[in-house]
């Protein structure tokens, strides 16, 4: 067993990361790895960023931790203000936690408490989508629709219903317009709310661009607007999970800004700390906060490390870099180049079915047959082979299986640092193409 459990089991089986240098990680032998996925869309500024390092040193010299039951801190207040200033309309409050799962858990509990406080205690049901991942803690895992991740824990998961994802490549009929397709799948939410009983539904949760379980699958234009209308019609809260796709990854600070939709709550994490500190946040509409503030006055939730001053200081520096260096424009420009390069190298490949995404958040879906879109047999473990082959050749990318239904299908997720140079995009695509071909030949 080599995953995530440190001690004897990892010694000798994984390289030891000893340094970071811009878009590269370096191991103890001096080997350099181009970080084409930021782990899983975390390292948006690359490694060893000078501004973030300075901010962390500075904060450490002041104060690292002061419990939020007693104190606030300058970095936490500054971070909340910056996030609100750039967030979609109506977002006025920020709840700082330590990661993505914590942000999603907080959103579910805040939604529940909101309905209790406004006198609708019957609302407790959550609807999400089949192709989704919202975290590994039990509430977040129940919300996610990925069968492979859920299966072993199914008896422990609160009942959540899942509708179809917005997955144009596989689900749009040939004679259906993109717009009609988006409305058709969005309308599944209406049907599901009616089936469950509109008064019992608390929230709909979705990723605007699906990350880990699907490989950067964006909602088609119009889909999220229709979802917003349906939620409004039934008094259901819209929670958008931007843990992976938020914080500039798609070329907008919040991915939903491209869709022109303002949700009731947004969860963010990964790119917020950019790997320099563990941090996540739940952003909420003012009226939700007000209902609780003017009601019981106490959100029945909390974690020891929430609002951590060091984590907030890192996030302030990250946001400073993204906004002051206009990295959002750079994400759009370099994202377009990455997309073009992927299409020129892999667009005609007999086993590449789809290349998709937004900004520097891109996915490549692999198929056994391009015409029928038949996936590879999962027993072939194609995604694991691609990962190993790319890694051996100095590229970190994020291939996964279960793309279609949590069981079948392979994709590669790419999420390089926003500072990636043209020549590094060339290297990334060339190593990836070679890894795919070598894995397919095995
Ligand atoms: N939500 C989404 C969309 C994610 O991609 C992830 C992690 O990959 C999570 C939530 C969970 O975040 P964390 O791993 O920080 O708990």
TrEMBL record:
<comment type="similarity">
    <text>Belongs to the class-III pyridoxal-phosphate-dependent aminotransferase family.</text>
</comment>
<dbReference type="Pfam" id="PF00202">
    <property type="entry name" value="Aminotran_3"/>
</dbReference>
<dbReference type="InterPro" id="IPR015421">
    <property type="entry name" value="PyrdxlP-dep_Trfase_major"/>
</dbReference>
<dbReference type="GO" id="GO:0005829">
    <property type="term" value="C:cytosol"/>
</dbReference>
<dbReference type="InterPro" id="IPR015422">
    <property type="entry name" value="PyrdxlP-dep_Trfase_small"/>
</dbReference>
<dbReference type="GO" id="GO:0030170">
    <property type="term" value="F:pyridoxal phosphate binding"/>
</dbReference>
<dbReference type="InterPro" id="IPR015424">
    <property type="entry name" value="PyrdxlP-dep_Trfase"/>
</dbReference>
<keyword id="KW-0032">Aminotransferase</keyword>
<dbReference type="InterPro" id="IPR005814">
    <property type="entry name" value="Aminotrans_3"/>
</dbReference>
<dbReference type="GO" id="GO:0008483">
    <property type="term" value="F:transaminase activity"/>
</dbReference>
<protein>
    <submittedName>
        <fullName>Aspartate aminotransferase family protein</fullName>
    </submittedName>
</protein>
<dbReference type="InterPro" id="IPR049704">
    <property type="entry name" value="Aminotrans_3_PPA_site"/>
</dbReference>
<keyword id="KW-0808">Transferase</keyword>
<keyword id="KW-0663">Pyridoxal phosphate</keyword>
């Amino acid at each position: 067993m080599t995953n995530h459990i440190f001690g004897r089991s990892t010694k000798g089986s994984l390289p030891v990361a000893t340094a970071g240098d811009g878009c590269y990680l370096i191991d103890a032998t001096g080997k350099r790895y181009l970080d084409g996925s930021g782990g899983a869309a975390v390292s948006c500024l690359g490694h060893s960023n000078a501004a973030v390092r300075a901010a962390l040193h500075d904060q450490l010299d002041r104060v690292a931790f002061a419990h939020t039951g007693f104190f606030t801190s300058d970095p936490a207040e500054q971070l909340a203000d910056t996030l609100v200033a750039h967030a979609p309309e109506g977002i006025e409050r920020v709840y700082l936690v330590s990661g993505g799962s914590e942000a999603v858990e907080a959103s579910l509990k805040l939604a529940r408490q909101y309905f209790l406080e406004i006198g609708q205690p019957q609302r407790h049901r959550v609807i999400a989508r089949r192709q989704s991942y919202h975290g590994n803690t039990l509430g977040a895992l129940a919300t996610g629709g990925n069968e492979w991740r859920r299966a072993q824990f199914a008896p422990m998961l609160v009942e959540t219903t899942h509708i179809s994802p917005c997955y144009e490549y596989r689900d749009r009929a040939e004679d259906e317009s993109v717009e009609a397709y988006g409305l058709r799948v969005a309308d599944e939410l209406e049907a599901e709310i009616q089936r469950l009983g509109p008064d019992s539904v608390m929230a709909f949760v979705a990723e605007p661009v699906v990350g880990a379980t699907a490989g950067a699958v964006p909602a088609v234009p119009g889909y999220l607007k229709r979802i917003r209308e349906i939620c409004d019609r039934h008094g259901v809260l819209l929670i958008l999970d931007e843990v992976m796709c938020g914080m500039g990854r798609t070329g907008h600070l919040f991915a939903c800004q491209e869709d022109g939709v303002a949700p009731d709550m947004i969860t963010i994490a990964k790119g917020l700390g950019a790997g320099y500190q563990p941090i996540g946040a739940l952003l909420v509409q003012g009226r939700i906060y007000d209902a609780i503030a003017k009601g019981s006055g106490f959100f029945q939730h909390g974690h020891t490390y929430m609002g951590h001053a060091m984590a907030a200081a890192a996030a302030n520096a990250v946001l400073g870099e993204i906004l002051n260096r206009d990295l959002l424009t750079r994400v759009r420009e370099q994202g377009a180049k990455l997309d073009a390069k992927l299409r020129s190298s892999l667009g005609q490949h007999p086993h590449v079915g789809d290349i998709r995404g937004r900004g520097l958040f891109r996915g490549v879906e692999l198929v056994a047959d391009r015409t029928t879109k038949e996936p590879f047999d999962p027993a072939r473990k194609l995604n694991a082979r691609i990962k190993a082959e790319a890694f051996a050749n100095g590229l970190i990318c994020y291939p996964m299986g279960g793309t279609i239904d949590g069981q079948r299908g392979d994709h590669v997720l790419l999420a390089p640092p926003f500072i990636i140079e043209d020549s590094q995009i060339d290297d990334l695509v060339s190593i990836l193409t070679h890894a795919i071909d070598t894995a397919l030949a095995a």
